Amino acid sequence: MTSSTPAPGTGARVRRERTRATGLRRGDAAAGWLFTAPVIVILGVFLAVPVLMALWVSFSDWGGRGSPFSGDVDFVGFDNYTAILAGGGLAERDFGIALRNNAWYVLLVVPLQTALSLFLAVLVNRAILRGRGFFRTAFYFPSVTSSVAITVLWLFLFSATGVVNKVLAAVGIAGPNWFNDPTGVVHNLLGVIGITSGPTALTDADLLGVSLWDWLAGPSVAMSAFVLMAVFTTSGTFMLLFLAALQNLGGDVTEAAMMDGANGWQRFWRVTLPRLKPTLFTVLTLGLIGCWQVFDQIYTGTQGGPSKTTLTPAYLSYTAAFNSQDWGQGAAIAFILFLIIVAFTLIQRWILRDRPVSKRRAAAYLPKATKTTDGMTR
Amino acid sequence: MTTSTLADRTIGGTDGGSRPTRRRRPTGTIAAQSVLYAILVVLAVVYIFPFLVQVATSFKTDADAAANPVSLIPGTWSAAAYERLFAGSDFPVWFANSALVTVFVTLGRVFFDSLAGYALARLQFRGRNVVFAALVAVMSVPLVVLLIPKFLVINQLGMYDSYAGMILPLLVDAAGVFIMKNFFESIPTSVEEQARIDGAGTFRVFWSVVLPMARPALITIIILSFQGSWNELSHFIVATQSPELTTLTKGVASLASGQLSQGTQYPLKLAAAAIMTIPVAVMFFIFQRRIMNASEGAVKE
User: Residue A184: CA atoms inside 13 Å, Cβ hemisphere, count?
Assistant: First the structure.
């Protein structure tokens, strides 16, 4: 309002505007800074400064004693980063394992939670109003509880003779010893068809100190229990997002599609889902960001075990710093994790970007005019 | 006048929305509806059953919990787990610490977030856009990445292992400021302008005119802050070490990893987890409608 470029208009009007504006807005500058000061100071001191400090620590050999800025702390360049990414030692191997565990976790949790929450939202949306509130509450409730409380519950449910295994036994399945089972799910499945060791091409080559065969092991059985837990606790939140989007859609376009003879399945894939794209984007982004930050569950439940198969970069960063006193490496892991999250968000944004008309979709519509009109006689 | 047109529009809206369902219902056969409800009921059981098992197990004896984990009715009722928690452990201290931190953090966030949100939405000052951009940038930093950095600063400031170190860093959150800013932008300025013309100062306008109008957004902030600080774990891990400052999350996590107990002791652990769920559950049921609407509002943007 107080911008210096005068609006095109009579001089008198501009002057009147300005006096009115300054008259009302006189104290704005002082008040604005005063009002935002607490937020700026606290976020600055506890978010911005720490990030810069940690950046320095990740390039230093600070051992956790005294100030990281004192004279006897040296700049070591990329030493901490190379130890993690190419050191050939335990640090590299641990990071590789943590990355593998978390990658499988993301690969399973993100699609599962998105699909389940969308499924729940569609179901609840279809229910007649009376039951809707109850089901919505039931599905959302796990989301409000703390990750610690849920982990405690999960440890009990998935214990060797716990609820899950009792239920599985009732239908004739011998359940695994969930949180103590380090075997990879993919390896186990391959074992069923008789493949117990990988080809040498995979076992000999390695990435970050972990052989490619072990990269493909899949999440351990223990990690799978955490996967189920993540799906259980997050599906409610994302269901609410989808539900709100579905209710905002309105029925007109869907009805038009129905008139055109689209069946329920086609209506969902071709009409409803494309219009849910913004929400889908939100859910996938939040899911991705959340999944790369698994920490509470591991800290409470397994501390990375069994055999490091539930180790995650976030937890590794914590233990490296606080338990092993390798502060430089811990901070370096945190920054690599940050870059991973940023990279994934950007990739996903690029994949889900708005294209004029995708070739695939165009192809889906084009042949209809030439090909036989299957049921779509118009 | 505006309210009446608004009301008209809403009525018209719901009418238009419900008509298609009413027309569709006869075509959607009873069979389809019952399949839908069957799936919903099965899923609801899957979602609720774990919590029922949790409460039931907390009243079982250790042996009973191990032998009959599925049953929802304890073989012998026992409140031993709760007695041990309250009489024989630090649990009351953990609870008190969590409550203290939650109250202060919630109050702080309600006040500071709305103050900053108002400034960013309404006050014209040089640098406002910079502040806002910085806020968005801060929001995108993943919290887990900040574990080590936060410890470094807290330690450097001499606040390690103190209430100040536990509360101050949580006292403000960027997302809350964002929510308040969006809300203030959505309400008309006319009332404030009037108050300003009447000679009220900026803070006065904010405190007695704007804030009372912001009740829905404030409730959202209260819910988010309460839930966030009550369930917070990682910050307390890096900010404290002494037993007197342990919060519920940290304490129950140590219970879970078996530091205080021998054997599995599931009734004890589940009782602790159940009690720690109660405050957020109460909060959830009180503000249920608001929570559902809050996330709906978040999507509309």
Answer: 19
